[in-house]
Amino acid sequence: MDSITHTLFGLTLYGALKTEKETKRYNRALLVTAIGASQIPDIDVVSQFWDTQGLYQMWHRGITHSIFITPIWAFVFWGLVWLLFRIKDIRLFFIAWLAVFIHVTSDLFNAWGTGYLEPFSKIRITFGTIPIIDFVFWIIMLGAFIIAKRSSIPSQKVFRTAWLLMAVHIAAQSLCGYIIYEQHEENYEKIALSANFIPYHFTVIGKKDDIVEIVEDNLFQSEKLLYTLQSSENADLDLLFRERPEAKTLYEWAPFVVIVDNDKHLGLYDPRFYRNGQSFLFEYIEKEGQLDEMHVKN
User: Fold this and answer.
1) How far apart are alpha carbons 277 and 66 in whole angstroms?
2) DSSP conformational letter for 44
């Protein structure tokens, strides 16, 4: 999920647990714990500053998003709130653990996926049933803030209902995604699912031999073929991997790739993020002949 959604998760968790019976200092500690622990797994973004081997794609949402690391993050925040607020309450440890668990588990449901089982498995787990930015989540959580502010309903009840509604949304959309995945699986050798921003609409990306098809589908309308892509499966990628280490990382990270080998470029891209004729995850080198021609023109 995106940073805004994780922040809203933290605020909604705070709203579901805050009580006027506690001291202001405890509630401040609760706020810091809920929001901070909801964000901490994404600290891996700093690794790009010292990545010299093109491994950031693997590091991002890698070990920091492992289910086995969640109690370590919880312990970090438990110690932090003790330093900041001088509160050593075991409840804050478990709240931090819950916030981190929500972060790493919710990220499983979008196309990017996580290293949920690292370091024991390098497999990137992705369900692809929830988009990275899910506006249904936003509507539910922002609606809860408005209702809690303007109604006489206890705020804890409002925010806990919001969590229930989001859980129902995840279950319903994931069920739809699973049904669509099953309908297309027999047509391809490899298949991936990516949820669209419109609820209960999905993009199916399937590969058979050297052909990749990108299909838009949902349970209420007929499927629509968006793109047919051809992959140069016989291309020699050794030069690409030597000169562009990020390409090797992408090749290993993605469920499958489309290989480009034409007069201008040798490269590969992740078709799950293919939009308007290009994928934003595209690693390539220019052919030497093309470079020489450019030098002559200059």
Assistant:
1) 34
2) G
Rounded Cα gap, residues 107 and 61, in angstroms? 9
| Residue tagged 């892509």 (tokens) | 229
Question: Token pair of 204, please?
Answer: 């199916």
What is the rounded CA–CA span in Å between residue 271 and residue 279? 7
Q: What is the pTM of this model?
A: 0.87
Q: Inter-axis angle of helices 3-17 and 155-185, to 10 degrees?
A: 140
Rounded Cα distance, 61 and 52, in Å = 18
- Residue pLDDT, tens place only, 80-118: 999 999 998 999 999 999 999 999 999 999 988 888 999
- What is each CA distance from 132 to 8, 164, 217, in whole angstroms? 14, 20, 18
Distance CA 104, CA 42 (A): 9
Q: Are 7 and 1 in contact (CB under 8 A)?
A: no
Residues 267 and 278: beta-carbon distance below 8 Å: no
Say whether 166 sits in a helix, a strand or coil.
helix
Confidence of residue 57 (pLDDT cuts 50, 70, 90): low
